[in-house]
Every structure is written in C-alpha cells, then in structure tokens.
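Lecture notes, structural biology module. Today: joint structure prediction for complexes of two components.
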Amino acid sequence: MTTGGLTIMLISVSTVTLLFAWCIYKVLSIPGETEHMHGFEMETPDEKAQKKADEKGA
Amino acid sequence: MPAQTSKESWSSRIGVILAVSGSAVGIGNFLRFPGQVAEFGGGAFMIAYFTAFLLVGLPMCWVEWTLGRHGGRHGFNAIPGIFLSITKRPIGKYLGCISMMLPTFVFMYVVCIEGWCLAYAVNMITGKAHFTNKTEAESFFASITGIASNGAAFGLGIQSLAVYAIFAFIANFILLYRGLSKGIELFCKFAMPTLVIIALILLVRVLTLGTPNPSEPESSINNGLGFMWNPQKVFLEVPTLDDTGTTAWHTHQELVGKESIENAKKLVQAEPSHWQIRKVGVLDQLKKPRLWLTAAGQIFFSLTVGFGVIATYASYLSKRDDIVLSGLSAASANEFCEVALGGLITIPAAVAFLGVADISTDTSLFSLGFKVLPLVFSSMPGGMLFGFLFFILLSLACTSACLAALQPGIAFLEESLNIERKQAVSILGLITGIGACFVLYFSHNLTALDTFDFWVGTCLIFIMGIVYSILFGWVLGVDKGFNEAALGAAFPIPSIFKYIIRYICPLFLISIFALWASLDVLCLGTGGIDHHITDIIGNRQEGIQPNTIAILSIGLIVLLTSFLCLLAKRAAKYQPY
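The predicted structure, tokenised, for the full assembly:
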C-alpha cells in the first residue's frame, strides 16, 4: 500500500468512525432521547392494538 | 433501586443504538462496497462516495424520514398515500405506486440471494464447499445458482437452491405474519449486532494474516489494502488489433506492490512494442460518469434511501419522535459498517490468499462473495467455521432487508383494499411468490435477477430519489419540511441542507442520471451500449438479438406496476384526491 492509499484509508475509516461515535454520544448524553429514537423496529397500529388486547386479556 | 434504574436505562440506550444500527446493515456493506472501491481505486471512489453521502445520501435520508412522518400524521402509511398528502393531486398516488413497486421487486431477488447464502452456509459446515482452486469455486457457484440453464436451480438436496430459497421465503413471511415487533425487531436487536461482532472478529483475523504464503510475497494483506485504497491504479497492457487494423492497448493485469511494478517495468524495457504500463490517477477516474453513478448508487442502496422503506416506517412515528438523530444515527452506523468493517475484510483477505491477478478482473458482489470468499475460507485455518458464520450472518442481513422491503407493500394493500395486516401479508406473499419463482426459474446467466437489479435496484432508485427530493424541496417546500423534521428533534437539520435538498440534490441526481443515459444508453463518446439495453432492444449492428427473459422481466415489472396503479385508482381512501 502506498502512502496515499494509507492516508485515504485512515481518513475514510476515521471519518465514519468519528461520525458514528458522535451519534452514540448524542444518544447517550441527551436526556430522554432513547424514547424518541427509532430504527426499523416500531410497531404498526394494528400490532399495538393487538398487544393492548392481549394485555387486557392477561 | 438507583442501580437497577441505571442498569435498565443503560440497557435501553444500547438496545436503541443496536436497533438503529441493525436497521442499516446489509449484505451490500460487506460485498458490494469493497468491490467497487477496488474497481475505481480508493482515492477517486471515496471522494465520489463521500460527496454522494453529503449531497444526496444523508439529505435524502432526512427527506424520506420527514415525508414519511408527514404522511403518517395525515393518516397515510403507504407511499401512494404519503405522496398524495404532499401533492394533493392524483399523480402523487401513481408516483407512489412506482416507488412502492421498487422494494417489492428488490425482495423478489434478494430472497433468492438469501437462499444462496443459506446454501453456502450449510455446504460450508458440511465440508462440501471446500475448494482447492477457482474453477471448483466457480463450478459450485454455477451449480448452486443454476446459471447453466433455466430451471437448473430447482431440485432436492443440500445443493439445490430452490430448497433454501423456499425456506427463506417461508421464514420471511412467517416472521411478517407474526408481526413486525416479533420479526424485524428480533433481527435488528440481536442478529444484526451479532453480524457486526463477527465482522470485527473477521477483521482482526484478516488484518493479522500478513503474508499467508511466504513463497508468494505479492499476495499479502498490505497489497490487498493497497489494491483497494491506493489512489493511483497501475495497469500492465498488451496491444491487440481490432477489425480496422488499428492497434489498441488492453489491460493484461493490474499491478500492486513494488515487486510486480518493477517486474512489469523490466518487461516493458525488454519488449516495448508488446507491453506498456498505464497509470490512472484520481482525476482520470473522477471524470468517469460510471464512477459517480456507482458511488451514488452504493450510497442509495446501502442507506436504503429512494426505496420508500424508510418513509413507510417513519409514517408510524409521532411528532414527539426524533427523526433527525434517528436518520443520522442509522446513516452513520451504516457508513461505519461499510467503510470501517466491509472495506477492510473481503478484498484484503482475497488478495492475501489469491493474489491481485486472480481477483482484479472481477470484483463484482457475486464474484467476490460467492466465488472468491469461499476459496479464501477454504485456504484459512478453521475457515469452514468462519465461512459458515459469515454466510449465516449474510443471510440474516438479507432477511432484515427482505422484511423491511415488504412493509411498503403490506401498508399499501391494507390501505387500498381496506383489509387487515394478515390478509395483506397473504396477498403480498402470493404476488412476491410468483416473482421470486420467476427469478428462481429463469436462472440462466442470472438474467432475470440481473434485469430486476439493474432497472429497479439501480435506475429506478435514481428516478425515485429525484422524485423524493423534488417533493420535499419544491412541492411540500423546504421550510415546511424542515419544520416537520424539527418536531421532536434534539437538534435541527443544519440550514445549509435547505439549499442542498432544494437545489443540489435534484441537480446532482439528474446530472448523474443524464450522464449515464447519454454515454451508455445513447452511446455518445466511447461508453458503448450497456448490455441491459441491448438485452431489451437488441443491436442490429452487432447482430445481438433481444433477450426473451429480460423482456419477460420488464413485462412483469410493467404488469405489477399497472396493477398497483389500478388498485390506487380505485382505493376509497385516496378518492378525495
């Protein structure tokens, strides 16, 4: 690997790592933020209704 | 009590980060990205890649999250409805149908690739995927995928793709039938982080390989990293005579490492009429439209923007939810997995075991993942176990993508036919089952899969990306859009993105698309006609006939899109417009 290649690799890897680390820091440091953060895991309305019905049944 | 509360809070926060990260990680991070970096050289590709990330990837992420929640707050969860809530005109629902068709077709071929991954995992652990040379690996790939002829993927036994693809298809729909929280959540919170942990283990393993075969010092991790990341590409070329008797130089092999370059120089000095060395710098690469198309396509594909998947999920969020940090976290997690993990594992390992010459001619996703890597695992101590884990985890990545890709279709069927989720899942299962069988059966040269991937998974993504950016920047309005995004956000989207989303995003996308179309489709300059075009229309000058399977694939795309548009036209929920 040439010096140019090493430089590009280090800049690329450190840029994305720092960005990801900054996001984790923001999530951990902002009070109550986790309740308002989402990936693709949220429930659809009919599932929420089903869950409520199950809880009532239990 | 305080300790317990703290522990619960910590666990919840990590869970959220893992869930957000998990939703962004996919097969393209580990296989597609490294091959593309190696093809164009790290310097040029990363410039185009980060430019595309800042000018279209990240803004388009926020655009999709915002448009999705905007539609959700107006009572729509399907893309046609979300578009309608913005355009207030019928064209919105028809554009939405095209957007929604995109993930549905992506599912049809990704579920087959999931079958490939499962087939490789099982054959790895049973020792049947242990290869001693590239021919064996290629032959195994051809046998699993049924490349030789249509229908060859069908059969029984542990080397039959149909068994794995059907299993993958059923597993996906069982998870969807059970519900999102028990399906996608499981993969996001547990399986995907496991993939990242395994990727880290593989990364350490690969970076400590050094020079596996001391008799071949050129085959080393250092040269593997150089092959990917060096800004300047060096090629050894040979002359060939074309039909008109003119001499043209063609690449004989790519050169990486001091020794191979020195050896090549000696060849050129000895026979200057037979050999030449050509260096391609960063600026030369940046002038290639295909580089920009590839980099932007990779950003779109890996961030899943332009697919309509993010918009559908965001439509279920309330105004208290933070879509700005959620979008940024998902995008950054994806970039981390792609550049810091995917970018350092596959290509360096392949070069260390096989050398540059063996892999530089073909660094496509399929070749790298299913021909080169199995050979690498075969050469590595304990490689069968590593290979098994790698392919199991790739199949989990595919499953996550498949589950996400089906949600827009389910939401649309629920909305347009006014039916329950489970009924919608059943109808979509029938439609996608036909499509997946089509891809599985027409496996000759993977034409059906390749046609879907090119027209839907590459071209249409760009077109829909342009539509999304125009809808946000010009129809909804950037100010209104930014106000919507700011609801519940810990911090607002930086205001510079107002200009980027309104002007640069659509211009950037239109420019790249126009460049590609003019050079590859209209054959201006020296680009040549892309084979996907000649597959459809043929080429009289070169005597190429249209490909029937490609035409059938396009026919299926048009047929399903028309059907969806018809449903949207008749849907009661969309009638006020």
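Point to remember: Helices of chain A lie at 3-29, 45-57.
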